Amino acid sequence: MVTDVEKNLVIGIDIGGTGTKIGIVDARGEILARDEGIATASYATFEEFVDAMNDVIKRLITATGSEGRIRGVGVGAPDSNFYTGNIEHAFNLPWKGVLPLADMLSKKSGIPVYVTNDANAAAIGEMTYGTAKGMKNFIVITLGTGVGSGIVINGQLVYGCDGFAGELGHVTMVRGNEGRMCGCGRRGCLEAYCSATGVARTAKEMLVSMNEPSMLRDIKEITSRDVYEAARKGDKIALEIFEKTGTMLGEAIADFIAFSSPEAVILFGGLARAGKYLLEPLQKAVDKNILHTFKGKAKILVSKLRDSDAAILGASALAWE
Amino acid sequence: MVTDVEKNLVIGIDIGGTGTKIGIVDARGEILARDEGIATASYATFEEFVDAMNDVIKRLITATGSEGRIRGVGVGAPDSNFYTGNIEHAFNLPWKGVLPLADMLSKKSGIPVYVTNDANAAAIGEMTYGTAKGMKNFIVITLGTGVGSGIVINGQLVYGCDGFAGELGHVTMVRGNEGRMCGCGRRGCLEAYCSATGVARTAKEMLVSMNEPSMLRDIKEITSRDVYEAARKGDKIALEIFEKTGTMLGEAIADFIAFSSPEAVILFGGLARAGKYLLEPLQKAVDKNILHTFKGKAKILVSKLRDSDAAILGASALAWE
């Protein structure tokens, strides 16, 4: 039996539109127990969903004998506000309006709950357990269905005046009417080009504009994974797609560096695994576009956290702060 | 005679390529005494220049009876590094290489010396004496010969990993080869369009591309001041120049807001005095380009510090920190 003072564990929860993952994590970043079985959209009300999370928390605590040892719960959730602990008008969750997540879950569980979006959670995760250990100034860019970012300056996550700072997926890269429509309703956002879905859009565009043969021409609904597989096999159009994507991401990163002069920019998420196909044009574009003052200073790195662990770890790290 | 413990005054020094200004400042931002007579470029060596500054400091202290009351000296200087106290490879100063400003001046004067660039000094000045009093998250954009910026997040100035963060004049606004050459050697920088010199360049460009009559056509070397005077008189091309400049600045600011979600963006320097001619298109472009999350949150403000005082006040504020 552990005593009440030894609160040396945290719980990480990653709330996604499809599934929600929960894990108990120790100070070294080991996940002692986990449950990835909550189907987010299957709960009619937000309170039922919170009850389901609370049940899993209780079960994991009992299973690991962690009673009294949980310091806090960190949650990564879309459109969530660190300051208020609320989820606010999330597009890809089934419940509308302002959802008092931290308040409701902490009352039910009896454990303090901290909330932020998944990109901020990734940044805290990198600082606590990952590539950014010991760094005071860095930017994490998450390359998934969308493009998100978590910015750390002077060792602190940047939340801004409202809790929502760090939306680098929505800086404008192509101005005017030729910019692609973005999910946010604007045009030309980084996310519309450099997310997994952006890569698939670029693929469709290039298959129309180029005449080269390509194995991508046989695929009905192209994904970024297909483009990666084709690039590995030397497919010219696939390589060109990554060249374009990496170049734009590098141009954007050169601007981000002019803002906060970080030690490192850390790429996180599925697309970051594209390796040299993405990283080589990206680094070239950073070097070409960066202001002389910053040349060669910020390292471009890829997260080393395992994909299957990263979401829980990132969220859990919030509870150590 | 004051006692040694009452260190309730600071000294502000603004080092410019042409002139250097020094003043003694109290906690309310009153300049008790000043000297604006140092001609920067007239000193053969950096050490002679530092000696000249030290002589002025001594004289101002004696004149105001401030012996023992000076808490510190804050210096705003081009290409200067807060962490090291050095000026590093400044383009528009006569001495080359790394100049140990803080070290040399503090040894000679016996007073602690803190150094940063003029845009950062402006941000600290706004926070201490100006429009940003009480704000924890804001961005100051200086619109002078160049475009500079000082970024405050969580109440701290952002210096980044190297002391040089906050070069928002050098984010790329026009990509590719059609971007204007910038003084930094790159193309399409915000500074190449939205500085005072950028406005003059836009004027020349528009006088060629438009056929409208304009009073600007009679001026040999157009300045941003000429454009302002013409706009006030209803000159169509002059109004169009400010429309273009304000729009681009607003587009850039919408991106900056996505980074740090500040309470306010404060415009500082000569061009900021163009009033509605610049501010109306600027605000319109911010509203049009901003991500829905941030709509209506960050205020666009103009510095209220008097131009003649701002440089000394901004630098002096560094010594209170």
Give the secondary structure arrangement, pairings included.
The structure is a homodimer of 321-residue chains.
Chain A: E1 9-15, E2 19-26, E3 31-39, H1 46-64, E4 70-76, E5 87-88, E6 98-99, H2 101-109, E7 113-116, H3 118-129, E8 138-143, E9 147-153, E10 156-157, H4 191-194, H5 196-209, H6 224-232, H7 236-260, E11 264-268, H8 276-289, E12 299-302, H9 307-317
Parallel strand pairs in A: 1-4, 4-7, 8-11, 11-12
Antiparallel strand pairs in A: 1-2, 2-3, 5-6, 8-9, 9-10
Helix pairs in contact in A: 1-2, 3-9, 5-7, 6-7, 7-8
Give a verbal description of the structure:
The structure is a homodimer of 321-residue chains. With 321 residues, the first copy, chain A, is of the alpha/beta class. Helix content of chain A is 36%, strand content 20%. In chain A, a hairpin with a 3-residue loop joins strand 1 and strand 2. In chain A, helix 1 packs across helix 2 and helix 7 crosses helix 8. Chain A is globular, with a radius of gyration of 20 Å. Chains A and B meet through helix 7 of A and helix 7 of B.
